[in-house]
Amino acid sequence: MKRSLLSFILLFTFSFAAHAQRFSISGYVKEASSGEFTIGANVYVKELLKGTTTNAYGFYSLTLEKGTYTLVISSLGFDPIETKVVLDKDVRLNYSLKSKSITTKEVEITAERSDKNVESTQMGTVKLDVDEIKKLPAFLGEVDVLKTIQLLPGVKSAGEGNSGFYVRGGGPDQNLILLDEAVVYNASHLLGFFSVFNGDAVKDINMMKGGMPAQYGGRLASVLDISMKEGNNREYQVDGGVGLIFSRLTLQGPIKKDTSSFILSARRSYADFLARPFVKKTSKFYGSGLYFYDFNAKFNYRISDKDRLMLSGYYGRDMFSFNDNEADFSAKIPYGNATAALRWNHLFSSKLFMNTSAIFSQYNFEFGATQSDFEFKLFSGIRDYNAKLDFSYFPTIRHNIKFGINYIYHEFTPSNASAKQGDVEFDTGKMVKFYAHDAAAYIGDDFDLTDQIKINAGIRYSLFQQIGPFDRYQKNAIEQITDTITYKPGEKIQTYHGPEPRISARFGLNTKSSIKASYTRNYQYIHLASLSSVSLPTDVWMPSTSIVKPQLGNQYAIGYFRNFANDMFETSVETYYKTMENQVEYKEGALPEDGAKDNLDYSFTFGSGESYGIELFLKKRLGKFNGWVGYTLSYTTRVFPELNDGKPFYAKYDRRHDASVVLSYDMSKKWSFSTIFVYSSGNAMTLPVSRYFVEGRIVNEYGERNSFRMTPYHRLDVSATYTPEKRRKKKQKDDAVQVAPDGTSTDAEEEAPVTKRRFESNWNFSVFNVYNRHNPYFIYFDNAGDADKGTLEIKAKQVSLFPILPSVTYNFKF
User: Fold this and answer.
1) Given this model, what pLDDT does residue 750 score?
2) Are β-strands 22-31 and 91-92 bridged in parallel, bridged antiparallel, or unpaired?
3) Which residues on neighbouring strands pair with residue 608, listed in sequence order?
4) Mean pLDDT of 151-163
5) Could you give the CA distance from residue 49 to residue 209 in angstroms, rounded to a whole number?
């Protein structure tokens, strides 16, 4: 009896263990034509109605119980793969996706959510397709990534022609902008008219404006994560375009086929060359000019199926020069970014993926002016050395765990000045620099609590420490410097730290709709001090110090998400509320150069803010006619004890109404059409409410801060893209997957009647501001008449930048 009982227990235990036995399917998903790894591809298990997506390096992992499953691998613009998998051991399966042939019945375009609209836990997250962005109306012949971001609900433009953006009431410094993990501190070219991102070099764009995962930090408002292309590792390819004011050229190809590749991409504006013949040498402005150039490069090498190296970089410069030969005055303003990122991917097992990164970021600005023998220079910048270690762990199909650490060494150079006249140099104080350690550790889990409830929860703990060398000036009650505290190199000056919890949850109502909610807490330790209502290169980056405390933000959001008509339409309604502490502004009358022979942070004042609103989004995903409509109703206020008599005022980022309509129509294989319409409430600004004379001078008395609104902004753009008949050649081979007996897999090739275009080109014709709307850029006051005779008239005048602007761009690829 005892033996029978023991046998039964052993048999039951063995049966249970066998039933509970789990194995992993893992591998990489890439594009068949180029060999580039696919970001965010869906890997779906039909029988379980569950799945995952590939990470930023094309890797996926699923851990399932022993059995036979149907796997579906799909991605935007590619034909899906459906395959049977017998899972009785760990297997490595790599997949190659072929580009989808666009038909008249089904075309997936426009903005694509980073996961399915209803199923994902993420809120306020949008993935944009670069190829579809290129179809939209272009500003002066160039479609801009950042201007497309501004067409999304909750994201507002910084102003006419400006690539800066505000997200849910936050300032431009509250957006974390990443290019291959490197921070980009000024994302603008030509004083804000264009962004630094070259569409030919960009592979993936993810915008997160709410409920950001724990691996991101350091900013209150949003994350814009942009990945560069890796380079075609199958064949050489040339892309380019010729526009009205600049041209671009991209080269890519294999270094060693299917093992390593490169991509090189460059742009250069030539408005200065075009204008030069029309400016006479006798003109007092001869020698003035404005241009930019930038360069992207990336190299990657697959050491093995478990190890991969990537090296990427960006370098860009703007140069604005102004000459007034009659006044013997000249000025030069060079500025720009440089980034570099070296990354190593390693696969420890089918469940554990690691990425190690060493990153460099730099932004420099300089203003130099000369008049007669007087010279003046103002310069600022920031430099970062960054090391990251990120892990992804996939214990089961219900869990996706991410954890890691990050360290940044900051070097700030804020608003240093020098001046001399002839051989006489003026004492503006020694060059001031700030140094700081910035570190964080995080862990987060995206998991299914039940079939209806999915949660993404995580915590990030961050630390920021200002260190020497540094001189802190001590002041008395009347702002006189009385003493100096000198800190030695590496000496601790001020330390801040704190937890940053995040949680977002999705409750599935049915297969077509869900409710989502999120809470995010963020610290921001670096700040952008600005005197302008828009983001300009003159803005100064400052660290947290003993005077400047870190910004702290708490954001709460809830939304309803629903799909209609077999997922043809995606809709969402999101509402949010955000509080912001330790906001930074210049004091009344303060200027950046006030930091000479003083501590710049004494020029700042501090306050709090709040923002709340509702965002509506409707997108049509399928069909020849598609696009999206977005609308935002929002309120953003600030309270500073030293500004506006301590009373609340609307922030310069406040826009009551903001709407956008983006539509695209593929009429045929040759012709496609797009249009954009935008509307937003006018910018908030401060204007005089009365004037009076003091000793013959006009003195303005200003009203409450930002109490006046400019007229609303609205604009219509249209474009048409013509693609000539394609010349084709036969490609003899295509990718399949071959599984080895040991469970690993390699990319095999088989004969396939796939055609490859030899030469592709198109013409894009765009009209910006079709009905010639005179949108306000700024307002100034002009005096006419004589005050003594009682005929003085003071009139407000509006300056507008862009009338109707047609453009044409020729794009090619071979």
Assistant:
1) 37
2) parallel
3) 639
4) 78
5) 28
pLDDT class for 695, splitting at 50, 70, 90? low
The answer to whether residues 609 and 580 touch, using CB atoms and an 8 Å cutoff, is: yes
Tokens representing 502 are 């995040």
Q: Please, what's the b/e burial string for 73-111 (b: 16 or more CB within 10 A of its CB; e: otherwise)?
A: bbbbbbeebeeebebeebbbbbbbbbebeeeeeebbbbb
Cα 726 from chain centroid (whole Å): 34
CB 156 within 8 A of CB 168: no
The CA angle 552-210-344, to the nearest 5 degrees, is: 90
- The per-residue pLDDT of the chain, averaged, comes to 82
Contact indicator for 129, 76 with CB cutoff of 8 Å: yes
The dihedral formed by the CA atoms of 198, 199, 204 and 207, expressed in degrees to the nearest 10: 80
Tokens of 106: 């089904």
pLDDT over 90 at 803, yes or no: no
Tell whether the model's pLDDT for residue 534 goes beyond 60: no
Q: Using CB atoms within 10 A of its CB, is residue 629 exposed (0-12), middle (13-18) or buried (19+)?
A: middle
* Strands in 257-351 per DSSP E: 260-269, 289-302, 307-324, 329-347
Q: What is the per-residue burial (b if ≥16 Cβ within 10 Å, else e) of 263-283?
A: bbbbbebebbeeeeeeeeeee
Tally of residues, the chain: 814
Confidence check: pLDDT of 654 > 90: no
Instruction: Please tell me the predicted confidence (pLDDT) of residue 725.
Output: 77
Q: Are 15 and 718 in contact (CB under 8 A)?
A: no
pLDDT at 284: 62
- The answer for 110, left when phi > 0, alpha when psi is -120 to 50, beta otherwise, is left
Can you tell me the distance from the alpha carbon of 159 to that of 137, in angstroms, rounded to the nearest whole number? Answer: 18
The DSSP letter of residue 93 is -
DSSP string for 211-274: S--TT--S-SSEEEEEEE----SSS-EEEEEE-SSEEEEEEEEEEETTTEEEEEEEEEE-HHHH
For residue 437, give the nearest of 394, 398, 491 by alpha carbon. 491
User: CA 374, CA 355: separation in Å to the nearest integer?
Assistant: 52
Question: What is the arrangement of strands in the sheet containing 222-228, beginning at the earlier edge strand?
Answer: 123-128, 202-210, 222-228, 175-179, 182-183
Across 238-247, 308-317, 401-410, least confident range = 238-247
Phi/psi of residue 261, each to 5°?
-155, 170
Q: Please enumerate in sequence order all residues whose Cβ is within 8 A of that of 745, keeping only pairs 6 or more positions apart, or say none.
A: 27, 91, 92, 93, 94, 737, 738, 739
DSSP 667-731: -SSSEEEEEEEEEEPPPEE--EEEEEEETTEEEEEE-STT-EEPPPEEEEEEEEEE-PPPEEEEE
In the 8-state DSSP scheme, what is residue 185? S
- Using left for φ > 0, alpha for ψ between -120 and 50, and beta otherwise, residue 200 falls in alpha
pLDDT in tens, 183-194: 999 888 876 678
Three-state DSSP class for 616? Answer: strand
- Write down the pLDDT at residue 490: 92
Cβ(148)–Cβ(139) under 8 Å?
Answer: no
Question: What integer is the mean pLDDT of 275-282?
Answer: 65
Share of the chain above pLDDT 70, in %: 84
Q: What is the CA radius of gyration of the chain?
A: 29
Beta bridge partners of 701: 690
What is the structure's pLDDT at 138? Answer: 73
Is the pLDDT at 758 greater than 50? The verdict is: yes
Reduce the DSSP state of residue 308 to 3 states and report it. Answer: strand
Question: 3-class DSSP state for residue 73?
Answer: strand
Beta-carbon contacts of residue 492 (< 8 Å; ≥ 6 apart): 465, 466, 467
**What is the average per-residue pLDDT within 59-81?**
87
Tokens of 607: 């306050």
